[in-house]
Amino acid sequence: MELIRNAHVYAPEDCGIMDVLICGEKIEACSKEIHIDYDDLKVTDVKGTILIPGLIDQHVHIIGGGGEDGYSSLIPELNMEDCVMCGVTSVVGLLGTDGIVKSIPALVAKTKALKEQGMSAWCLTGSYAIPSVTVTGSVGKDIAMIEEVIGVKLAISDHRSSCVTKEEIARLASQVRTAGLLAKKPGYVHLHTGRGKRGLKDIMEVVEETDLPISQFRPTHMSNQLSDAVQFAKLGGMIDFTAGETTADDILSIIDEVSPELITISSDANGSMPVWDENKNLIGMGIGKMDTLFTTIKELYDKGMDLSIALSFVTKNVAHSIGQDGKKGVVRNGSDADFVLLDKDMHIDTVYACGKAVVQHGTYTGKRYYQK
Description:
Layout: E1 2-10, E2 14-23, E3 26-31, E4 42-45, E5 50-53, E6 55-60, H1 80-84, E7 88-93, H2 104-117, E8 120-126, H3 139-145, E9 149-156, H4 166-183, E10 188-193, H5 201-209, E11 217-220, H6 226-234, E12 239-242, H7 247-254, E13 263-266, E14 272-276, E15 282-287, H8 292-302, H9 307-312, H10 316-321, E16 339-342, E17 348-353, E18 356-360, E19 363-364
Helix pairs in contact: 3-4, 4-5, 7-8
């Protein structure tokens, strides 16, 4: 057991100065003052710090993105250290363009490895393409039978996608929904959304023309289709933005039209970031960085957004999106003990994942098999 005293808690709501009691992997109590008599209790006074929920990154290429400039451009995998040093204590791993060299079995194995190291992790089956790559030969079976798999990935409105039809989208979403119900999982379709001509129109037409709820679809990279994102959110759908240079401004431009509860942000960490000319020729390549996640939150705060709202985009809202309401993305009695301590300059100082301090004063202290 450990008692954290005198932290300014954002849960993500501003709770003021609080004490937080950890018991195992859970937060046992969060209150103005906690008094407990226990011989082996560790007490840590963190006066002057801000305590926030551990960040949840729901779009991470944990085994590295596929190279789009030949095999030498394949992106390497990341490790737990890469995540928690950025304040991220939970991830959802996925594939991208490459469903050939990068495989779902490798993705599931890496998800299990991150859990063994001491953080929380899930993954999505599928990649950009249809038919979806899987472990079992069926998207539904992957979701129903593999503990870590909670949904499927698909690309739309992109020249690298499968030019998927509305009928194919509807059938895939129906299969995923049923499997999710059977396994008591979110069972959603995570949509890489490019800058293509159709935007989110096919998705909105599927929702209009079928009995599928809009919650089955989770489009990301919404800066690519900002007007469609607003329309989708007005129908009740959640929209995900990729952290980066323009993300804060894009969100601020729509915040008066869209409920903040429907907005999430992810990093696309270790994914390929290709640059195309007007003829779709590759002219540059970058890599997604996980540290952009918290940087974007700080930018929103610096530009006048209430910190509790900005934090919800990478904590509470994401927990709701992936079926972890009340467990992840919050600091409250009974929630998982995943949280981050920020210093007075809002820099990440200390990180707890599953009740253990894995970053202390800027130094990684978690499990590492191979020394750097």
